[in-house]
């Protein structure tokens, strides 16, 4: 069995070593000085941050279902071809790489179609909108691994604080890990699909906005920000899909998680239209080669775990509560608590706190040469990988498994059962009715693996 220190050292070496990309699917050579030809699919919202981070590359294609947003962006990139349908965009022959910033219900489609055409892909989170879609994205990437570079847009993975937390957990700061509790207090609305509101404005291709999902009449409420549409089953996966992709990433990385053996979840009464306004979930993960089996907990919509006592023996088990606060005002609006047999680590994006249960003689900080190296940025790490084959922290193997894990909680919630999970066959062995929530039904004319 590897020690946690050996695991850290192995990771640090892997993160700096090159992976030589095979030729055949690359439109360009492997020189880091060559510019990538990039297509942006979805050019509003999060795409604006990606444009800023990928300066210096060639933007050769722009795609958006809103012609006004598309025309405004095209002024900045007059040499780029423009499209409303991403399927047509992917036919452009000179594209090397794709940045996907569409609504969640089309992520898996764009990702898979782009990879099948030999394109490198950077995708906003989550990679998919169902357990089955996440598995398909992951398997498609593995089919082309070594030929394409991928990255999910969980940019906090590339921060210094994330690296220090991972080093502490894997280096033994809390002893043997037992569990991790993860939360985000965002509380979206519930309700039903919006009623018809008349014709969509001329600048918005509503049929393409709906994409592969079941058709719903136009209502402007859907497009007033992601928290308006991602709460609906046909368009998103609630907070476990949205912020869960960010927050659970640190737990996945620090504890080297993959596929759980069970999952159960509770939330507000099941609604056929919308995700729960609050959700709690727990997964069992098997032991790996450096740690024993662990439990992973999730809380959203105002639910939080109890905070660990500084005196370990007085409060060994955090108690759950329903503590609400405003984002930006509540210092514990979101975060993680890792528990081991020798203490706790609490953290969020910008801070970390070690609460040991005794002295720290069991722990030695990593040497400088063992520190996990920093990328220039999350997007630039992907650009470099496209050109040289260097690794990315959130490739679609790693992030596909994380998203699949997260969305399994929604399956458990909708069935109301603790699922005994067979990851290899993608089935809940004790709950055949879960199948209807593992996969999704698409509109005629839309193919996931295109």
Describe this structure in words.
The structure is a single chain. With 450 residues, the chain is of the alpha/beta class. It folds into two domains: 1-14 and 160-203 and 231-371 and 396-450, Dihydrodipicolinate Reductase, domain 2 (2-Layer Sandwich); 15-156, NAD(P)-binding Rossmann-like Domain (Rossmann fold). It is 30% helix and 18% strand. The chain has 14 helices and 17 strands. It has a nine-stranded mixed sheet with strand order 15-14-13-7-10-9-8-16-17, with helices on one face. A six-stranded parallel sheet has the order 3-2-1-4-5-6, with helices on both faces. It has a two-stranded antiparallel ribbon with strand order 11-12. The protein is globular, with a radius of gyration of 22 Å. The model is unreliable at 10-29 and 310-325 (pLDDT under 50).
List the helices and strands and how they pair.
Layout: H1 4-16, E1 37-41, H2 47-53, E2 58-63, H3 67-76, E3 81-83, H4 86-89, E4 97-100, H5 104-116, E5 120-123, H6 131-144, E6 150-152, H7 160-170, E7 177-184, H8 206-210, H9 226-229, H10 238-241, H11 243-255, E8 262-267, E9 279-285, E10 294-300, E11 303-304, E12 321-322, E13 334-340, E14 343-348, E15 351-356, H12 378-388, H13 396-415, E16 419-422, E17 427-428, H14 435-438
Parallel strand pairs: 1-2, 1-4, 2-3, 4-5, 5-6, 7-10
Antiparallel strand pairs: 7-13, 8-9, 8-16, 9-10, 11-12, 13-14, 14-15, 16-17
